[in-house]
TrEMBL record:
This is UDENN domain-containing protein. The lineage of its organism: Eukaryota, Fungi, Fungi incertae sedis, Mucoromycota, Mucoromycotina. PANTHER family: ARF3-INTERACTING PROTEIN 1. It comes from the Eukaryota. InterPro entries: Actin_polarity_regulatory. Residues 65-95 are annotated as: Disordered.
Length: 255
């Protein structure tokens, strides 16, 4: 995002700055804080205060899916089709409480106060963002019938996408992030990610197995049926064979 990043700017550059969509700028003049129409989110690094501009409007889902979409959810031995909720017929208030956001920030603040290293703090944000973009791909499948930013669930062994404790938690997280996802889908960031993820998928050594999902299940879920665990390891055995595939898996472990 170098074309949108301005490490330092001043009032003489405001007009040029506002012509740049999604700019990220460093400023010291308090006038910027007063003009809430100039920015969406303002971070005061001196006080730690983060302000969201009241000019931001909620992005509601307005598109109608081309077909009824069912998203694969794993069972102990196979795949079960779960009817997707009619997100396109719902509106989601922007002020809806997101418990996961609160938990995440509490975790980050605890880590900072405990003097964790930069690498550890950075990894927490990477995990958070990765889950969001994977959630967005799942959302697109449910709402639009396909996704532009991930694997298609019907072509992947044992399913793909983020891991949830149960169906109810999945629906809550999708609902809470619907407006956020719709807003991101209109951004330059989304187009960059769409380009990068599709390039990666085309060149990936492991084509039909979402390794990250399976590892996440083994790490995060407390109760997994023995037969499902066996199915996961069998999928690893059958799809991770070459040296390059093993390297790809090792990189996944450190994401």
């Amino acid at each position: 995002f170098t074309e949108r990043a301005f490490p330092y700017t001043n009032l003489t550059s405001v007009d040029d700055l506002l012509k740049c969509p999604g700019f990220i700028a460093g400023v010291t003049n308090p006038t910027y804080e007063e003009h809430t129409s100039w920015w969406d989110v303002l971070c005061n690094i001196s006080t730690g205060k983060i302000t969201v501009s009241h000019h931001i409007e909620s992005n509601h889902v307005i598109a109608t899916p081309t077909r009824k979409q069912s998203v694969s959810e794993e069972t102990s031995l196979g795949v079960e089709q779960a009817q997707s909720p009619p997100f396109h017929q719902q509106q989601f208030p922007a002020e809806e409480k997101r418990d996961s956001d609160v938990e995440f920030m509490n975790e980050v603040m605890t880590a900072i106060q405990s003097h964790y290293g930069e690498t550890s703090i950075r990894a927490k944000f990477q995990d958070y963002v990765l889950r969001f973009v994977r959630l967005a791909a799942l959302y697109e499948e449910q709402v639009y019938g396909h996704t532009n930013i991930g694997r298609h669930s019907n072509g992947v062994i044992l399913g793909c996408g983020p891991v949830f404790v149960d169906e109810a938690s999945k629906q809550r997280e999708l609902k809470a992030n619907a407006n956020r996802i719709e807003g991101w889908r209109q951004s330059i960031s989304y187009r960059y990610y769409e380009r990068d993820i599709n390039h990666w998928l085309q060149n990936a050594c492991i084509k039909n197995l979402d390794v990250y999902r399976q590892i996440s299940k083994l790490k995060k879920l407390k109760h997994i049926p023995d037969q499902e665990v066996a199915a996961i390891y069998e999928a690893f055995l059958n799809n991770i064979v070459t040296h390059r595939q093993m390297i790809e898996v090792s990189l996944t472990l450190f994401v």
